[in-house]
Amino acid sequence: MSFSPVLIAIPIFAILIAIEAWYASRKDQSAYEAKDAWNNILIGFVSVFFGALFGVFVGLIYAAAYSLAPFKFPADAWWTWVILFFVDDFAYYWFHRVSHESRLFWNFHVVHHSSQFYNLSVAVRQSWFGSLVHWMFYAPIMLLGFAPWMFAVMHGFNLIYQFWIHTKFIKTLGPLEYILNTPSHHRVHHGVNNPYLDKNYAGVLIIWDRLFGSFVKETEEPAYGIIKPVNSYNPLWINTHAWAEMWQAMRERNTLRGKMRCIFASPNLDR
Q1: DSSP code at position 191
Q2: How far apart are CA 224 and CA 97, in angstroms?
Q3: Does the reported pTM lie above 0.85?
Q4: From CA 116, how far away is CA 100, in angstroms rounded?
Q5: How far apart are CA 233 and CA 253, in angstroms?
Q6: Residue 137: exposed, middle, or buried by beta-carbon count in 10 A (0-12, 13-18, 19+)?
Q7: Domain that holds residue 101
Q8: Could you count the other beta carbons within 10 Å of the beta carbon of residue 216?
Q9: pLDDT in tens, 61-94
Q10: pLDDT tens per residue across span 200-246
Q11: What are phi and psi of 77, to 5 degrees?
Q12: What is the tally of structural domains in the chain?
């Protein structure tokens, strides 16, 4: 149940990051900063460790949810995997959207957005503690009757797909832009300039953004990072600064309602 294709893909990620960094040194040196890239990689490795640690807890939740499912999808049926692909990608869209629209979840996700660069190394810059809440969005998949190991495989491939779209060097993919999440669409997602802020939440299929009104086409060069830059290469602070900011905002509110809004409302209230 702990298996994920992402673990096998890590050496491939490393090779592709090295290739892109070499290419950027010759074509666009603004795409990479060595200290930022190495910091991203360090954060990524530690996130894998914590993901495995929390994975024991999350795996028990998924197993319990699966045991309650009234129907079990057969793993040897091709149509099971087709359905699971769409279900997983749909769940990812809403997890990702809530991670931008609720400060509680943004405090984890902000780690990924806090680099002021956009390259393949940013793809591995992930929260150390995100696994503590991610399961809330995916446990229903097990309740639908998909075995935890099946979800782990499908979700792993979903995350692998999202790695390569973190690049400035692929402009557009023609007609595929209407269906798939592409580098162009995801550059928009990482942009903090209007009208890019908090748009294009897709994992693999951009159709969810088109259906739910969160799609914006790339029309200008995005400005990357977050509205309040973290201005630090300290991995621990990068993973915790948003919590400190939320705590400070809560202290400044005099009512319980105001304090609760600091936790659950949009992070745009203060960022």
Answers
A1: B
A2: 18
A3: yes
A4: 17
A5: 30
A6: middle
A7: 5-269
A8: 17
A9: 999 999 999 999 999 999 999 999 999 999 999 9
A10: 999 999 999 999 999 999 999 999 999 999 999 999 999 999 999 99
A11: -105, 130
A12: 1
